[in-house]
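$ run holo --ligand "magnesium ion" --emit tokens
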Amino acid sequence: MDKNRNWVSIESEGDEKYAKELEVAVKAVHVACLLCQKVQQNLIFNGDEDSVQSKDDSSPVTIADWSVQATVSWILSQAFGTENVSIVAEEDIESLSKSDASSILSSVVKTVNEALSSAARFGIKPPVTHLQTTQVLQAISRCNSRGGPTGRFWVLDPVDGTLGFVRGDQYAIALALVENGEVVLGVLGCPNYPMNKEWLNYQNGYRRILSSLTKPDPAGWDSNGCVLYAKKGSKKAWMQPLVNGDKGIGSASQIKVSTIDNPVLATFCEPVEKANSSHLFTQGLAHSVGLRNQPLRVYSMVKYAAIARGDAEIFMKFARAGYKEKIWDHAAGVVIIEEAGGIVTDAGGRPLDFSKGMYLYGLDRGIIACAGPSLHQKIMTAVDASWNSSCL
Ligand SMILES: Nc1ncnc2c1ncn2[C@@H]1O[C@H](COP(=O)(O)OS(=O)(=O)O)[C@@H](OP(=O)(O)O)[C@H]1O
Ligand SMILES: [Mg+2]
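-- output --
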């Protein structure tokens, strides 16, 4: 089989189902990636810290979060008709509509219009005239679906790993389509995750340090991320380079999970922040399973991308008791790993349930994604053995 192919030819694989949805979603994520790269550069190089706000739960939100949500919402609505598009997404307009947020709101409007004007290179027709503030706010607030067991809805995390984003590090744009409770499409934009996996090891601030030393070269590190995507049941997952300039979308190559099943050789990834997943617990699991490599701590769903690409073998997340995992933090990544040949379940071995609304209700303890069944079983067994002493 031809491993490298232009992404457009995916439509002619014989299975036309979701072909248009996939095409539009991939293009929308490419546009969103370039938008985010620009905002992140501005934040890191020009110190534009006004573009970062704090949400009620103290987590950061930036003009990139709102701008991506508006841009993707607008693109999906144009392609399928506003009445046919239902979106569950992370951001709302409450804080953006406050009187003291007027300058951030105008930055969002400007950023969205810039992104849409340059979308033509991906084959997306830009708006006839620039979007007005009310139209941008409408596009953001249209993403008010609450999900559920029936019908079709999109799931969007406009900037996953916002902490990584504001620190000049890894982040992702995640878009998935859910139909009757099942994720049928997943697209993951990883603007700082180049085709070369070695870059992942320079995590936690490497880019920030690099940024303070050199200005970005448009053809350099800031423009060589990737976009991954998969369609449920196709048994294929794909990766495209993220290309800057006027080059449009590059050719896609098929990705597969790693074949390593020996724990001694395997690498596991986990969230950077201890508050998001217990490092102590996973350290104990790693020890009992016989994992020797240092954990790869990476912000965002780039961890899902790392497993799908075969750059690591295991992803574990064990949040504190009572934390409700959100569907937008996982939907796109799950289908991409599964179609690349991997397994994603909760710690009881059950698939994640995207049919219960905005949260992964019923999740048993934590999330385990693995390249293959042998590692997966070993981790689940280790969780059972140590759960009672985990303090989680
Ligand atoms: N307390 C707690 N426990 C577990 N998970 C939480 C918690 N708080 C937030 N979140 C969600 O985690 C998302 C970031 O996950 P990451 O794996 O990227 O974590 S980390 O930043 O690398 O530590 C993050 O996504 P973003 O908000 O899009 O960045 C949150 O949805
Ligand atoms: Mg997120």
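-- notes --
The two ends are 46 Å apart (CA to CA).
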